[in-house]
Write a structure and sequence with these properties.
By secondary structure, the protein is of the alpha/beta class. It contains 13 helices and nine strands.
C-alpha cells in the first residue's frame, strides 16, 4: 500500500516511524521542514505539498492541530480530497469536533473515499512505541479494511460507531484528563502551602483511592516545575476542552465542571503558557494563591 501522512510533529513522527517499520511506502508532508527532515532520515519519502502526499495514496493519515487546519487540508482550493483515488481511506488522527468529522465524511463519500475519525490517546511516547489507544468513528462496513493499518500504530483500537463517534469519545476523555490535571494542581498547591511537600502528597495519592494515570504522566512536571517538558501542549488541551464544552451544549448537558476547567486553561493560555505542557495550568492556581513550588518560570 502507498501511505501518505500529513502532519509529522510530536505525534505524527512516531506514526511515520511505525508505518515504515511495517515495510510500507510512506510519503510525508508537514509545514515544518525540520519535521520533514526527521522523517526523511527514518526512511519516509518527503514531498513538497499535501496534494503530492495524497496523489496516489491508498490510505492518508492526518495528524493536525485543529478543525480549521483539517478542513483546509481536505477541502480548500489546494486541498487533497479532490485528488484522492476512489476507494482511498482517510484516517484522521487529529482531535476535532464531531460535526466537522461528520461533514468531512460526507464530502469524502462524494469523492468515493472513506473518512474515519480516529483520535488517539497515549501522547508522543505512545505514538513512538506504536501502542496508542485509538477511538474510531466511520463506516462500519469498511472498518475491517482499515483495522490492520490502525494496529500498526495502536494497541487498543475501539470502533464506536458512525462518523463523529470517535471524536465524541476523545473530547470526553480529554475533558476528564484536563479536569484531573487542574484538580491535581489545586490540591498540590493547597498541600504545599499547608506544609506538605508535593512529593509526599503525590505519594499518598498514588497509594490511595485517588490514584490516577494523569498523576503518573503529568505529576512530575507539576512537582518539579518542568513545564517545558511537553507531554501535551497546553494550547491543545485548551482547544479540546473548548470543543468539549460546545459538544456538551449541543447535547443540552450543563457543563458545570467543564466551564470552570476551560476558564483555568483560558487564563493559562492568555498568560503565555500555550507552548508549555498542559500541566502548567497548575501555575495559574499558584499565581492566584500567591504561592509557588518547583520552578515556575514560563515563556510569554
Amino acid at each position: 500500500m502507498n501511505i501518505g501522512v500529513i502532519g509529522c510533529g510530536a505525534m505524527g513522527k512516531g506514526i511515520v516511524k511505525n508505518l515504515i517499520k511495517q515495510g510500507l511506502t510512506v510519503k510525508v508532508y508537514d509545514a515544518s521542514p525540520d519535521y520533514i527532515s526527521f522523517c526523511d532520515e527514518m526512511g519516509a519519502i518527503p514531498v513538497s505539498s499535501a496534494r503530492e502526499t495524497a496523489a496516489d495514496a491508498d490510505a492518508l493519515f492526518l495528524s493536525l492541530p485543529s478543525p480549521e487546519v483539517v478542513k483546509n487540508v481536505l477541502l480548500s482550493d489546494e486541498g487533497v480530497l479532490s485528488i484522492l483515488q476512489a476507494g482511498a481511506y482517510i484516517l484522521d488522527l487529529s482531535t476535532i469536533d464531531p460535526m466537522t468529522s461528520i461533514h468531512l465524511s460526507k464530502e469524502a463519500n462524494h469523492q468515493g473515499a472513506y473518512f474515519f475519525d480516529c483520535p488517539v490517546s497515549g501522547g508522543p511516547a505512545g505514538a513512538d512505541q506504536g501502542n496508542l489507544t485509538i477511538m474510531v468513528g466511520g463506516p462500519e462496513e469498511q472498518f475491517s479494511s482499515v483495522l490492520p493499518l490502525l494496529q500498526v500504530i495502536g494497541k487498543e483500537i475501539i470502533y464506536l460507531g458512525k462518523s463523529g463517534a470517535g471524536q465524541t469519545a476523545k473530547l470526553c476523555h480529554n475533558m476528564l484528563v484536563a479536569s484531573i490535571t487542574a484538580s491535581l494542581g489545586e490540591v498540590l498547591t493547597v498541600g504545599a502551602k499547608a506544609g506538605i511537600s508535593p512529593e509526599s502528597l503525590a505519594n499518598i495519592i498514588e497509594k490511595g483511592s485517588a490514584n490516577n494515570r494523569v498523576l503518573s504522566i503529568f505529576g512530575l512536571n507539576m512537582i518539579e516545575g518542568t513545564y517545558d517538558n511537553v507531554n501535551f501542549f497546553l494550547s491543545h488541551m485548551h482547544k479540546d476542552v473548548n470543543l468539549y464544552t460546545k459538544l456538551a451544549a449541543s447535547q443540552s448537558v450543563p457543563s458545570f465542571i467543564g466551564s470552570i476547567v476551560l476558564q483555568l486553561y483560558e487564563s493559562a493560555k492568555a498568560n503565555g503558557m500555550g507552548k508549555l505542557d498542559s500541566s502548567a495550568v497548575c501555575l495559574t492556581i499558584q499565581e492566584q494563591s500567591n504561592f509557588s513550588f518547583g520552578t515556575t518560570a514560563h515563556q510569554s
